Each structure stands twice: as structure tokens, then as C-alpha cells.
Amino acid sequence: MPTALIADDEEAPRAQLLMALRAVWPELQVVQECVNGVDAWDAFLEHEPEVCFLDVRMPGLTGIEVAQRIGMRSHIVFVTAYGDHALAAFDAGAVDYVLKPVDAERLAQAVERVKARLAAPSAAPADLQQLLNQLVGQVRKPAPLDVIQAGVGKEVRLVRVEDVVYFESDSRYTRVVYAEGPGEGKNDGEVLIRTPLKELIAQLDPAKFWQIHRSTVVNHRHIASAVRIDEGNMVLTLRGRSEKLPVSRHFQSLFRGQ
Amino acid sequence: MIQDPLTGPLNPIQRLWLTRMLPRYRKLDAEAFGLIVERDKFLFSAKALGMWVGLFCGIVGTSFGLASAGLAPWIAVLSAVLVFAAFVKAGVRAWVQPQQFSGKRLWRVALFAMLATYAGALTSFGSKLGALIDAGVPWYEATLRVAWYATPLQIMVLIGALIMLAGIASARREYLQRALDQSRAERERDAAAAQLTQARLSLLQAQIQPHFLFNTLAALQHWVDVGDARAAPLPRALTAFLRGSTEMMLREGVTLAQECAMVRHYLAIMQSRLGDRLRFAIDVAPDCESQQLPPGLLITLVENAVEHGIEPQLRGGEVGVIARLVKGGVFELRVRDDGAGLAQNAPEGVGLANSRERLRHQFGACAELVVKARADGAGTEVRLCIQPDSGGSQTA
């Protein structure tokens, strides 16, 4: 049974797509309906569905950014109300998309294409990275987070993002493990903040902070090495610290010898 | 554009003449062809009859005059005809091609005319010349005497001819210049009108915003399909908003009250789509309601707040519109959101730049639009201040 996730920030188009999919592709199991980009990315890491229907404009991470992170691990179908430049690019890059409001016939065509790709054993999902890199620049993004404010008892501690070693999600909270540099009254510590990790991800500079696991994001400056234990397992060692952080399969391709 | 000149109402004479002359005329360029055909049509038309009669009388009169001055009758008639023909031809030429009858050219023509008339005089007064020579006057002296005798007439003819030709030419030049100026002014006006229409069209296109429209219709479609109660008010609000948008674009100015009505429709639509993610409050003091604004300004600011402030926020936010008259009668309008905030170094959007332009056009330096991050928390505030007595002179 093929699995899928749906992501759209508005409730009506989400429900409409779900209904239309049930009619056109009854065997498809929709594992999650996501309300924004960070939710979609987190849901992908949790369920690893075979198909992802992504609205293009979403808060947190846009559909394009989510698709970039998913890479070739899933078949992507974009959902959009009006393409502007994106549609031309989609057509040129043979990217699947459906327009809102969802038209049953057009959806059926897109579904046929996805089914064909799923059925072909050797065919991988289309490599859209280049196209997506082009499109991603079209959305204005606020500046990345600078400072984390964490309540510790009566105190609100301000931790500079650049001092953070890694973030780890911990049920409803996120652990922030930090190490202030030498010569500044060297302070190591950790605090808990309420912002879910999946939301933090969208506010961090992806060039500096690498996600290595659904629940872990590491500041790359503190990574010492990545050690492969066996076929499916890899851990990271950190500079000056003893923790070893597991790297999940999806992210192991980040660490490759040159 | 060369239509067959033989079409249209022609009297028999025009038809005859044109049929004969057309093969020759067709060798000319289009403009000359047109002018010459017009001229010929005129010459042979009923209106020109008066002209011909006058010409005929002139010839007759001159012939009698010349004859009484001593010329043989047939020479008198011939001379008169030739002179008048020359005048008419020269006059028509001056009309058709006035640039050839100015300055040096005119003097050359005059000189030629003078010599011609002297030669003519000598020939016509040939009998007088003969009589003088017979009387024993040497031929050169006789020639001179006859020439001198003819001179007053020459001068009259010369001056008359010059005046007439110069007059015709300059009148025609003036006429052409005026026509040229007029056509240039018309072309400029047309270009300006086309540009204005184009600007309004782009503004309208930007206003209609396909993204907003299709997303709203998608929501409406779904709610109709499932029988959700949110479907009911949506078409009404959408129609009111679209109608307001399009009508507004055709006007020079709108009141704050009118534009607020549209803003309410827009926010109601967005709220039904976004649910809890959008909260809003509109607070307009009653004494501000009649303030004139460039149409579409407020709606642009509110759209920006929703699209760039609220929609990208994970938890949504609140949009506020506040209008007051503050100290000194200054009108102050603020649109604020507690949303995503301004992107660093992002260039100003087209809608905002357009708004600034229209404000400048309507109020000059009396209006000021400031976009900045909010001091009291996250988000953005856009503040518009308009000094009083700034005119707002455009009619609504």
C-alpha cells in the first residue's frame, strides 16, 4: 500500500485534496496532513512516505525547501493556486504539479504518472535539485535566528546561536547544548526551550546548522568526525566533548570523504 | 491609401481631365499625387468657376489695356493670356510647394520674371521700336528708350508678382507649420494617454492578484462541495472586493471610508481562509473618514501585511489599521502587523513603490510614507502622514 503525506497551510485546499485523492487513488494511505512546511518535513522524517503532495507557499519552510530536503527519497507533486514563474519551470523540468482548486481529471493524470514511476523497479524519483535551487530564491526569508532566549527559573538566559553545539528534541521541549568560546568566562551548559525543534530548523542558517537526525541539529563547527559503525549506522564525534550523536540514514550522505 | 481618384462624384470635365492625366500623375509619389489630384479636381469644379470667370475678365481687361497702349490686338490678347497663365501657374506652385518660394529662390524667380517681361515689352512695343529707329534714333538708344518707357509697367508687374507669390508662399508655410505642430501635439497627447492607460492596466492586474483569486475560489469550491457554512458569505465578499478594486482604479482619489469598506471585505475573505491565523482590528476615527487617498493605497498596505507578515508566520498574527487626526490637523494612518517582520535588505515591492509615486503625485511633499520594524515587538508598521491643506485636489 503506497503511503503519502499532504501539506497545505490552508484547511480547505488540504481537505479538498484529501477528498479528491480518496476518489482517484483509493489504495493510497495518507499518513499525515501537514499544516505547514516544518510540519511536512518532520512528518517526512517520521513516516518516510513514498509520495508527498506539497503546497508551494507555506510558512516555516516553503514547499520548495521541503522538496529540496527530501531530495530523491520520495516522489513529489506540487500543489499551487497560480504558478507565475514556477509553472513554467515545472513544465520545463517535468515536475508533477496540480492546480488549486483540484480538478479530478488533472489529479488523475498526475496520479497515473506517479503510479507508473512507483511501479517501475529501477526508476527513482526525479532529481529536482537543480530546478529547486533555482526556485528557492524567489521567496523572501527573514534573517536567521541570532539569539535564543531560554527561561531558567527566574532568569532569562540569552544564548548566542553561534555558541550552540547542538539542538536535540526532547518530547515537548528542545535541549540547547552550548559552549561559549575561550576567553569569555568559558561557560558550558544546556537549557531547555519550548520551541519545537522542527520549527527551529526553519529559523536556523542551514549552511551552519546541519540536521543529522529527526531529533538532532548540529553546529558544523563543532563536528570532529563522522564514524561509520556498520551498514546502516553512523555516529558523529564532537570537538572537546564526549557525546556521540547518531546520524540517521537519510542524512548519512552529508558525510562523505572527498 | 491611394484610392482611385475616379471614384466619387465627378463632373464630366473633371472626369475627362483626370482620365487623361492620371497615367502621368501615377509616376509621382503618393503625397504629391494626392495633392495634384486634389488641385485638378478643384480647378475643374463648380467652385472654381468663379475663379475662371475672374481670370477671363482679367485677361480681357489687360488685353484692352495693352491694345490701347499701342499693341496690335492679337499681341495684346496673347500677352495678357501668357502673363495671367504665368501668374496662375506660379501661384499654384507657390501654394503646393511653398518652401521653394522663399529667400534666394524668390529673388531668382523675380529676376527671371523681370527679364522676361522686359523681353516681352520689347517685343510688344516692337512697333514703337521700329518707329523710333525709322525716325533715325540709333538702335541701342531706341531700345533703351522703349525699355525705359516700359519700365514703370515692369516695376508694377514685378512688385505685384513678388508680393503675390511671397504672400501665397508664406501663408501656405504658416498653414503647414500649424498643421505640423497640431499633429505633433496630438501624437504627444495620444502617447501620454496610452501610457496612462498602460499604467492603470498594470495597476489593475496587480490588484486582481491571481494568487489571491484562485486560492479563494479553491476554498469556496471545497466548501460548496461539502456543504460547509463558510461558503455562504464568501461570494458576496469576493464580488464586493473585486468590484471595488476595479471601480477604484478608474478614479483619481477615494475617501478613507470607501477604501476601508474594501479592506474589510478583503480581511473577511482572508480570515475565513486562514482561520485563527489571522486576527484583525480596524479603528478609524470618524473625522478621518472623508480623507482623500490615492485609490488602492490602503488595500496594498493591508495585503502586504497579510502576505508578508501574517501568512509566513507559523502561528499567524494580527493586522491593525488605525486612522487618526493628530496635532496640527495632520492625518495619520498606520497599518501594523505582528508577523514575520521585514527581510533584511529586501528591495521595496512594486506595490509600495507605486503607492509612493501616487502619493507624491497627489500630495507632493505633504505626504510621507514610512515603513519600519515595530519598536514594541516583532512585526512591521507602515505609517502615512498627510499635512492639512495639501489639496487632495483630484476629483473623486
Question: What key attributes describe this structure?
Answer:
heterodimer, A: 258 residues, alpha/beta, OB fold (Dihydrolipoamide Acetyltransferase, E2P), 2 domains, five-stranded parallel beta sheet, 7 helices, 28% helix, globular, B: 396 residues, alpha+beta, five-stranded mixed beta sheet, two-stranded antiparallel ribbon, 7 strands
Low-confidence stretches of chain B: 390-396
Sheet having the most strands of chain A:
5 strands, parallel
The CATH topology assignment of the largest domain in chain B is Heat Shock Protein 90
Would you tell me the overall average pLDDT of chain A? 86
Level-1 CATH class name of the largest domain in chain A: Alpha Beta
Would you count the extended β strands of chain B for me? 7
Strand content of chain B: 5-15%
Supply the CATH superfamily name of the largest domain in chain A.
Response regulator
What is the level-2 CATH architecture name of the largest domain in chain A?
A: 3-Layer(aba) Sandwich
User: Compute the gyration radius of chain A: what is it?
Assistant: 20 Å
Number of domains of chain A: 2
Helices and strands of chain B, in N-to-C order?
HHHHHHHHHEHEEHEEHEE
Overall geometry of chain A: globular
Here the CATH topology of the largest domain in chain A equals Rossmann fold
* Largest interface, C-beta closer than 8 angstroms, per-chain residues: A-B, 26 and 27 residues
Q: N-to-C terminal Cα separation of chain A, in Å?
A: 39 Å
Overall strand count of chain A? 15
* Secondary-structure element order of chain A, N to C: EHEHEHEHEHHEEEEEHEEEEE
What structural class results from the helix and strand content of chain B? alpha+beta
C-alpha end-to-end distance of chain B: 44 Å
Strands, helices and their partners?
The complex is a heterodimer of chains A (258) and B (396).
Chain A (H helix, E strand, L loop, with lengths): L2 E5 L3 H14 L4 E6 L2 H11 L3 E5 L7 H8 L4 E6 L4 H8 L3 E4 L4 H16 L9 H8 L10 E6 L2 E6 L3 E7 L2 E7 L8 E6 L3 H7 L5 E5 L2 E4 L3 E8 L2 E6 L5 E4 L11
Helix pairs in contact in A: 1-5, 2-3, 2-7, 3-6
Chain B lengths: L11 H14 L4 H14 L4 H21 L4 H24 L6 H22 L1 H9 L4 H70 L1 H17 L6 H17 L4 E2 H19 L3 E7 L7 E2 L3 H14 L6 E10 L3 E8 L12 H14 L3 E7 L6 E7 L10
Parallel strand pairs in B: 2-4
Antiparallel strand pairs in B: 1-3, 4-5, 5-7, 6-7
